[in-house]
Amino acid sequence: MTSTAERLPTQREPGRAKARVPANQTMNLQPLYWGTFGVIGFLATWEIISRFHLLPRDALPPASTTLIRATRLLTDQTFLAQIGNTLWAAFVGYAIALVIAVPAGLLLGLSNRLYALTSTIVELIRPLPPIGLVPLLVLVAGQGLEMKATVVALGCVFPLLVNTIHGVHSTNGVARATARSFGWSPVVVAWRVVWPSAIPSVLTGVRVTVSIALILCIGAEFIGGSTKGLGSWLLQQSMLPQGIESVCAGVIVAGLLGLLVNAVVSVLETNFASWARRDES
């Protein structure tokens, strides 16, 4: 009797494990379902507000006609060239921010003295809005790529820097001490222990700031009077008599760009930092 009773739980475990797999897969798909419903609900609300003239037609065109206009824009070579200019400026500025912020964050995170020396300066400059510097940057760097890349770099460098420092500070102290006890040099410890531990925090900063880069670049084009880029195109369309539909369509395309870039970063985060989630669980 005792042996039979002891076998029963072990015989049920495979069945339980198989029953849990579909449930987990369903839970993983729930954000996609709810996100789709949210988009449909938003578009339906937008259509109702416009069709029933709850807002003036020249202020909010119907969602259906705006989506058709956005689809046509995606086949317009002139519009695609403007998007390419914006993406290139955002990429250059973001690359500059990465090259500066990640090594500086590792250095400041590893050195308590340097961190104490610079933390006040970083916290003082970090809240300054880069868009507010556009008029000054136009005078210094003009209205082209240099100005837009500088705005993007200034807006992204400090969030990346803070996240990198946080990742270094969250490194397991026992792991660092163990590595030093094996005679590893500080450079080897930083490369083989500290940097892998800081990667999840760095990628979190990348995921947050990559969308900010697009926003800053479009805003700099809009405010700085650039002749190229999505922001410049939106400004020109807003001055036309019936340009509100094109402006709304351009905003939708900009949102889709941000969604696409965020999806790419999420894939990178899953591939290079998935082990961090497993350790936390």
TrEMBL record:
Residues 83-265 form the ABC transmembrane type-1 domain. It comes from Rhodococcus erythropolis (strain PR4 / NBRC 100887). One of its GO terms (biological process) is transmembrane transport. It is a multi-pass membrane protein. CDD domains: TM_PBP2 (cd06261). Keywords: Cell membrane, Membrane, Transmembrane, Transmembrane helix, Transport. PANTHER family: ABC TRANSPORTER PERMEASE PROTEIN MJ0413-RELATED (PTHR30151:SF0), ALKANE SULFONATE ABC TRANSPORTER-RELATED, MEMBRANE SUBUNIT (PTHR30151). Residues 1-20 are annotated as: Disordered. The keyword Zinc-finger does not apply. InterPro entries: MetI-like (IPR000515), MetI-like_sf (IPR035906). It comes from the Bacteria. It is found in: Cell membrane. PROSITE patterns: ABC_TM1 (PS50928). This is Putative ABC transporter permease protein. Coiled coil: none annotated. GO terms for cellular component: plasma membrane. The keyword Membrane applies. Belongs to the binding-protein-dependent transport system permease family. The chain crosses the membrane at residues 32-49, 87-108, 114-139, 151-168, 174-194, 206-224, 244-268.
